[in-house]
Amino acid sequence: MATKIQAPKGFEDILPLEVWKWHAVERVAREVAEVYHFQEVRTPVLESSALFHRGVGETSDIVRKETFTFDDRGGDSMTLRPEGTAGVVRAMVEHGLIAQEGARAKVYYIAPNFRYERPQKGRLRQHHQFGVEVFGVAEADQDVECILLQLEFYRRCGVKDLELQVNSLGDRESKERYRDALVAFLSPKREALSEDSQRRLTENPLRILDSKDPRDQAACAGAPPASGSLSERSRKHFERVQELLAASAAPFRVNANLVRGFDYYTDTLWEVTAGGLGAQNALGGGGRYDNLVEQLGGRPTPGVGFGSGIERLLIALDGQGVTLPSPRKPLVWLIAHGDAARTALWQVLRELRAAGVAADMDLSGRSVKAQFKIADREKAARCLVVGEAELSAGTVVVKDLATAEQKTVGRNEVVESLRQLEQAAGR
Ligand code: HAM
User: Fold this and answer.
1) Could you say which of 76, 239, 245, 375 is the most buried, measured as most Cβ atoms within 10 Å of its Cβ?
2) Sheet holding 162-168, edge to edge
3) What is the pTM of this model?
4) DSSP E strands: which ranges in 81-183?
5) CA-CA distances (angstroms) from residue 52 to 60, 78, 191, 203, 213?
6) What DSSP assignment string belongs to 289-344?
7) E strand map for 151-281
8) Mean pLDDT per segment of 10 residues, for the chain of length 427 residues?
């Protein structure tokens, strides 16, 4: 036998028995996005590398160390998207969807992203995000609408133990002041920083606050908070965010040192964590990015959004013992005693499927006992059995597998009698 080939490290298969959980979560995501009046956008997984260099930031860890980048056969540098925002901005600009001043666009996506990270629980090289992006509204109210949507998504999925942290980096000028304040604070401690953070001190000092290295964390104790550098406009913006969150009864905590992995953020930033996730406890996060559209060649347009990891959500739900509502239709399994009965059941099978009932049967002539076993393994709710007696009488035995109750019905009354049974069971 040839050697088996395995999935690449950090890439996971979503197998048939697990996929219903994805469907359940995706269905909630779409429902919530739609009641908040967002429309779906789908963009390519592959983009020109320049998009992420310019969009996510040349000096961000993600672009420096974590992208899957290669030259295609024509010699162009391409990158598998490490996140959703830059591609969505590119698409909106390219198709003129945010070209008009004052136009508001609200989009969402459910899509895979690729980061060359060290895989561990909750950290993959291919992960999926449910995300939203809104363009054209500079007001803090828009930040809060995104945050409330995100929380509503978790609430409907049944996640417990949520914590929302918010911070503000301020506008471009505030961010520069904050950067200078951090450099002034950390420069005397340069030697105490990790090697990576010594480099960050000149390239991207805000990222030092996010470092997991204990040396960096010690050096950052007592660092000046971003709030000290905020312009008047940014301070008011952040106050409005907090005021609206409080008015919406959404509990939150201001984390003055919250920074996130992308250079594009301005003003509001947030992250939501959940119990049961261990070290990788961020379920999702987002923020405002008022300069990104312009940086990517569009007319100046404010933007804000979030991304939420689906794998992490499923881990959290699992850890918290929450079962998602199964969107699976109850399955009906048809069981035939012999080939003539199978031929007769074919017609019933077609009718059931045409009526929208999930139905299946064994097609390889197995014994009746084996067919019942399969029905059980496939978690069928009911069986329809045709033996010799039913074949000549033109009837079918309908059996409920949970209660073992059964009754005989005419072959052309099957769809109707199943419908009645479902109604009686409250499904
Ligand atoms: P992010 O914080 O990098 O933000 O990712 C959002 C979420 O995706 C994380 O909180 C986490 O749940 C999940 N995630 C990220 N990386 C991984 C990974 N390697 N393995 C498993 N899950 C992961 C963004 O990507 C921004 N684009 C969000 C945004 C949208 N900001 C504004 N708009």
Assistant:
1) 375
2) 39-40, 105-114, 126-135, 303-309, 282-288, 266-274, 162-168, 253-254
3) 0.92
4) 105-114, 126-135, 162-168
5) 10, 10, 31, 17, 26
6) -TTHHHHTTS-S--EEEEEEEHHHHHHHHHHTTPPPPP-PPPEEEEEESSHHHHHH
7) 162-168, 253-254, 266-274
8) 95 94 96 98 97 86 89 97 97 92 92 96 96 97 98 96 95 94 93 92 89 91 92 97 96 92 93 83 95 95 98 94 84 96 95 96 96 95 95 95 92 91 76
C-alpha span between 27 and 20 (Å, rounded): 10
- Please, what is the end-to-end C-alpha distance for the chain in angstroms? 48
Locate the ligand 1 atom nearest the alpha carbon of residue 260 and give its number.
2
Closest residue CA from atom 17 of ligand 1: 123
For residue 170 and ligand 1, the question of a CB distance below 6 A is answered with no
Pocket test for ligand 1, best of 9, 68, 106, 129 (most atoms within 8 A of CB): 129
- Beta-bridged to residue 193, according to DSSP, are none
Beta bridge partners of 288: 266, 304
3-state DSSP helix/strand/coil % of the chain, to nearest 5: 45, 20, 35
CB 235 less than 6 A from any atom of ligand 1:
no
Determine if ligand 1 sits within 6 Å of the CB of residue 130. Answer: no
Reading the block at residue 426, the tokens are 């409250």
From residue 60, how far is each of 50, 65, 186, 191, 200 by CA, in Å? Answer: 14, 8, 19, 22, 9
CA distance 59 to 64: 6
| Main-chain phi, psi angles of 167, to 5 degrees | -155, 170
Q: ∠ at Cα 344 (375, 335), nearest 5°?
A: 15
Distance between CA atoms of residues 307 and 261, nearest Å: 12
Q: Please, are residues 168 and 238 in contact by the beta-carbon 8 Å criterion?
A: yes
Residue type, 126: Q
Q: Whose CA is nearest to atom 31 of ligand 1?
A: 286
Q: Which of 68, 337, 283, 247 shows the shortest CA–CA distance to 155?
A: 283
Whether 226 contacts 212, CB under 8 Å: no
| 8 A C-beta contact, residue 89 and residue 55 | yes
Largest CA distance in the chain: 94
Whole-angstrom distance, CA of residue 341 vs CA of residue 338: 6
Distance CA 269, CA 206 (A): 13
